Amino acid sequence: YVSVPIFIAIWYGMIWFFALVFKMVDSSNFNRDKDCGLAEPGNPITLSAAYAFSLETCTTVGYGLPGSANGFFNSDCEGLQIAITLQMVWSMLSNAFLVSFLFAIMSKSETRSIQIIFSKKLCVNVVDGKVCINIRCYDLDCAHPLVECHARLYLIDHNMKFHPLRLLEPNDDLGGVLYPSAPTSIIHHVDHHSPLSPTRMPLVENPHGLALRSVDSATASREEILCPVCGECYGTYERLAKHVKYAQIVEEQDDYPIEGTHREFELPDTTPVSLEQVQRHIEHSLSEIVVVVEAIDPQLSGTFQALQSYKYDDIEFGADFERCMFTKGDKFLVDLLKFHGVVYNDAMYYSSASFRSGGNNDDDKCTPCTTTVSEEGSSKTSG
Q: Which pLDDT score, from 0 to 100, does residue 347 have?
């Protein structure tokens, strides 16, 4: 909104600049009595005629000179030839810049990010015994699916330091690729490597500053649990326990001494963190959680980012998102009235409510409810 008027003002100022140049060239002692075509010999061109000629030169190439002669082709009118050449060069450069400038403005994709919506709440729940945080996002313009859509998640602590949160879904080992044309979840597992975890698990190798995931160790992508006796590494505590049990049988059979062997080793407490522990840690350490969705607009081929942040008041513990996508015939419908809705799971909700209130009273054991936040527009239909 500001750049275009400024460019037009510069362009218009150059028209007047070259008008003065033409007037100076025609009024100079060298060209005053020559018939170069700007005006009659001995009668220099007026400023208004010089402006008209400058405007004509800047906007076209095929034209006639104001005077009767075509002095541009005369060998003794070098000053006029140089001035016209400079203005035509300026005109070509300004036209090229204006075209590229307008194309850059029209091809900006920043406004595409407003069509990516995020859930108003961040849910922290327990899935398969794992504490996870869950964010929902959706592309309102699902008729034009985004290209190479990726998601990233960050924790900002009270010291304003960014900590990356590894993603379980979509798998960030595969690039964290999303398909937001349907409501999609962004899930982070709060394991012992997560900055959201209040404790660190025993016998785990030092990550040396890397952001790791325990699921990679559990799926044998790497091994991080160290046996303190023999130095062997295992992916899970279950595998370590089997190793220790087998080694104890062998060592007892071979009459190994107890001290310094597997016969002496006892597996420490490996209970994973609970929802209450995570909630307490988040309450005291969290500044905000930021989710970044980056994609390419298929219509303009430009990259854009959509961001959303969540503070402690935006987090729902022991809750999951309400179902918001339904099918009708050969189409699916997304109910935006339910997109932000959360539903509390019985066990998780009661546990979190008891923790929040500091006790177990009858008021805590309320009927699980559904909270729905309205959004403009009731539904979105896509083929």
A: 58
Helix (H) or strand (E) segment spanning residue 316: strand 315-317
Strand bridging mode 184-189 / 130-139: antiparallel
Residues 24, 130 share a domain: no
Instruction: Single out the residue of 232, 287, 291 nearest to residue 262, CA to CA.
Output: 232
- CA-CA distance, 315 to 61, in Å (whole number)? 66
Is the Cα torsion angle 96, 99, 104, 105 positive or negative in sign? positive
340 Cβ neighbours under 8 A, 6+ residues apart: 119, 120, 121, 372, 373, 375
Backbone angles phi, psi at 124, to 5 degrees: -115, 115
Q: Tokens 């961040």, residue?
A: 122
Helix (H, G, I), strand (E, B) or coil at 381: strand
Domain that holds residue 162: 112-199+269-351
pLDDT at 300: 83
- Cα–Cα distance measured from residue 39 to residue 313, given in angstroms and rounded to the nearest whole number: 78
Q: Provide the domain count of the chain.
A: 2
Residue type, 93: L
Low-confidence ranges of the chain (pLDDT < 50): 349-383
User: CA angle at residue 214 from 248 to 130, to 5 degrees?
Assistant: 100
Q: What is the CATH number of the domain that holds 136?
A: 2.60.40.1400
Is-contact 232 243, C-beta < 8 A?
Answer: yes
Looking at residue 311, the DSSP 8-state letter turns out to be: -
Q: What is the pLDDT of residues 6-24, one digit of tens each?
A: 888 888 898 899 889 888 8
What tokens were used for 372? 């729905």
Q: Which residues pair with 164 in a beta bridge?
A: 154
H or E, element range at 5:
helix 3-27
Tell me if 18 sits within 8 A of 87, measured CB to CB: yes
| Amino acid in position 190 | V
Give 161-202 pLDDT, tens digit per residue: 999 999 999 999 999 999 999 999 999 999 999 999 998 899
Residues 195 and 316 in one domain: yes
Spatial CA neighbour of 236 closest among 250, 219, 218: 218
One-letter amino acid of 380: K
Residue showing tokens 């071979």: 254
